[in-house]
Amino acid sequence: MKLELSMWYKILAPRSVVLVSTVNNDGVSNAAPFSFVMPVSTEPPMIAFASDPGHHTVKNIKMTGDFVVNIPGADILDKLWTCAKSFAYGVSEIEKAGLTEEKSENVKSPRIKESIGFFECKLSRIEDIGDHVLIIGDVLLAGVKDKFFSGGKYLIKKANPLIHIGGPEFALIGEIVKNR
Fold first, then answer.
1. What is the DSSP string of 102-158?
2. Over 80: is that where the pLDDT of 137 sits?
3. What is the pLDDT of residues 66-116, one digit of tens each?
4. Peptide bond into 53 cis (omega under 30)
5. Of 12, 23, 113, 122, whose CB neighbour count within 10 A is largest?
6. Percentage of the chain modeled with pLDDT above 90
7. What pairs with residue 100 in β-bridges?
8. How many whole angstroms separate alpha carbon 138 and alpha carbon 11?
9. For the domain bounded by 14-171, which CATH number is listed?
10. Where are the domains of the chain?
């Protein structure tokens, strides 16, 4: 079966989902879910995500030059979905969702306490890519809750991060297979 090109990315699933938190110059926080996200360099550590250029997240990142990528677990799916709603600019999705802001160590944007882990990022650059912008950040600090990392290994089944399939559908880690 051939796919309409408008549907091409739907079979590139599931994808990691993250909550990107930002803050504007007035100190009002913002959080939005993204699943077009990827690591782009290990040395130096860099991460990128794609966004609609008119998104409040993009406006705040251009304003402050930083952001935090938070990794949500299944336990906050409803709150993540609240963050996906369209609120007026200057309304805190973090507050509306009932999530808890944590002060970041290296950036103005807050971390989200309920997340499995986080990456504090300084904006490296923004590139126009088709109908999206690609936001690339230098990872200044990475963290994960102790119970989800042991012996240098991410305990992914225990962490149970959300994986985006498309629209309102998400998946969770089931079986882990290894190449023998």
1. E--SSSSSPEETTSSEEEEEEEEEEEEETTEEEEEEEEEEEEE-GGGEETTEE-HHH
2. yes
3. 999 999 998 999 999 999 999 999 999 999 999 999 999 999 999 999 999
4. no
5. 23
6. 77
7. none
8. 29
9. 2.30.110.10
10. 14-171
